[in-house]
Amino acid sequence: MSDEYFYVSVGVGVLIALLFIISGVTLSSSHQSETWDPEAKAEYPRSNKLLIRQALLGPDAKPDELNVVQVETMCLQESIKIPVAILKVGETRQARLDIEFPDAPVTFTLIQGSGPVHLIGQHLLGALVEEFEDMEEMEEEMLDEEEGEDSQFKDEDEDEAEPKGKKAKMSNNAKGKAPSPKKNAKK
Asked: From which residue to which does any coiled coil extend (predicted)?
């Protein structure tokens, strides 16, 4: 998936077909892992993207305990596991992450510590495939209407561009030159 799923061209401008939902999950000793996979549950095809903005250590966290959050996701054609946040009471209670996951599934795991660690972000939903088809039809109709209006204006412009009287006068003058100012002054 890529950003192209989230933008639809409509005429001159761009319509952003995007809905975002504030998402969050809490990892702790009783709930050490959470998987984000909206495509597995989806009834309708829709593009999805997950943005994790921040990791926060909860107020119930134990002092002097390191809490490490790891992410597992697909990168190209292989699975990767990487720690994204290391939090400790008295040192680092929060971490700004700003990590984007354009492909599901993504698994978050508390690999060290008992938490609680809160992950906060946004789940971006692109337009349904059916909505894109409707948009394409609408765009084609708009283009057809614009072409029809343009040809109508061209016909009107051509009629206005050829004043018959002036053209006849210019062709009657000697070699298409304008009359001299001396002749006009005598009248």
From this structure: none
Please state, as a whole number, how many other Cβ atoms lie within 10 Å of the Cβ of residue 168. 9
Peptide bond into 105 cis (omega under 30): yes
pLDDT in tens, 81-109: 999 999 999 898 999 998 988 877 889 99
19 token code pair: 């809905």
The answer to whether 113 and 69 are in contact (CB under 8 A) is no
Q: Which amino acid is at 150?
A: D
pLDDT at 114 over 60: yes
Kindly state the helix (H) or strand (E) to which residue 84 belongs, with its residue range: strand 78-88
Q: Per the structure block, which two tokens stand in for 1?
A: 């998936």
Q: Which residue has the tokens 């609680």?
A: 116
The domain over range 19-131 is classified in CATH as 3.30.565.10: no
To which residue do tokens 């002749």 refer?
A: 183
Residue 29, sorted as left (phi over 0), alpha (psi -120 to 50) or beta, turns out to be: alpha
The residue ranges of DSSP E strands in 58-116, in sequence order, are 66-75, 78-88, 94-101, 106-112
Token reading at 15: 């319509």
Rounded distance between C-alpha atoms, residue 57 and residue 59, angstroms = 7
